[in-house]
Amino acid sequence: MKKNYVSLVLMTAIALTSCDTFKKTSSTSNGGPAPVSSISRKEVLKQAKKDAKKYRKEGFRTFIGGLPLERQIEGAWLKTIEVDDRGLNEYIVANARVIGGNTSGAKMQALHQAKVEMAGLISTSVAALIESSTANSELSQQEAVSLNKALQASKELITADFGRVSVEIEIYRELSNRNVEVITCLAYSSRQAFEIAKKNMVQKMEDGTEALHKKLDSLMGLDKFAPQTNTNLKIEDE
Description:
The protein is α+β, with helices and mostly antiparallel strands. It contains 7 helices and 8 strands; from the N terminus they run E-E-E-H-E-H-E-H-H-H-E-E-H-H-E.
């Protein structure tokens, strides 16, 4: 059996568990983690109902004006597995789980932290592309150092540059100590995210030559975007 889970970013340094486990029977040919996009729509909808039931039992509820809990969870999972006509991931999906002293404060913190997690997912993918291009001699070691340096320096800019994101899940519960716990899940276009990352890396490239800029353009092709890096949803062996 396979189990996948959404690992949630924490702002409180408290070890909180992730969004619910999700059973899967298929596996990859090499025995490693399966791409998230291999999960079927039927499995997603079935799991959304189970997750909603558990969250209600734990005391979570939707904000006024929000979609029903099942619809929110379905939307988040479907965005995670959605692909375009080329079979590439359409969205990057990131999650955050925050405990705050009041509802509005925890809600704002969860939104910000989900964006930080999203920027981290993008950076991880770009870093992997840089490493792969260096190994294939498409980039020199010096060029790779320059690009990695620009990538690290642009993380905060990437987070601030997202603009409007799609809020897929936004639920909360009141804790016994009067604090409030909020879970937020965001989705954002993979293509737009890569463009944001590339733009901000260019701004931070201190010694970027025209040739290196061209290599960055080639490097950041969306066709190289690995499906396992579009979300913090993972599929692991039990």
